[in-house]
Amino acid sequence: MLNFNSIMIGTHQPKVLADFYEKVFGKPADWNDGSWYGWQVGSTHLTIGEHSEVKGKAKEPQRIILNLETEEVKGEFDRIKKEAKAKVIKEPYEMQGAWIATFADPDGNYFQLMSPWENESQAN
To answer: What is the 3 state secondary structure string of 34-98?
Structure first.
């Protein structure tokens, strides 16, 4: 069985992204080593670091979307929009009883706020 351990965002501007995600998460990186930054986010680790092959904005930001779970989608949406000055891709909307909102980070990568998943075994 594999365990999903972490996500790395490669960038040409690691400090800019680190400052941005510090505002999104409401705390500084859990660790920093030169141009590398990392946060423990729930059971997954997010790492941001300089990558020599990455330049400019994401060309297909929909390809991989980071989903951040919260019971307060609307409240967190307002906070992140104000504090991180995140680019709004889609205002909060409801889909099958769950709330979703989509932002872009300074590199153009998409991330979403989402209501917690409720699987069938939990609902019964």
So the answer is: CCEEEEEECCEEEEEEECCCCCCCCCCCCCCCEEEECCCHHHHHHHHHHHCCCEEEEEEEEECCE
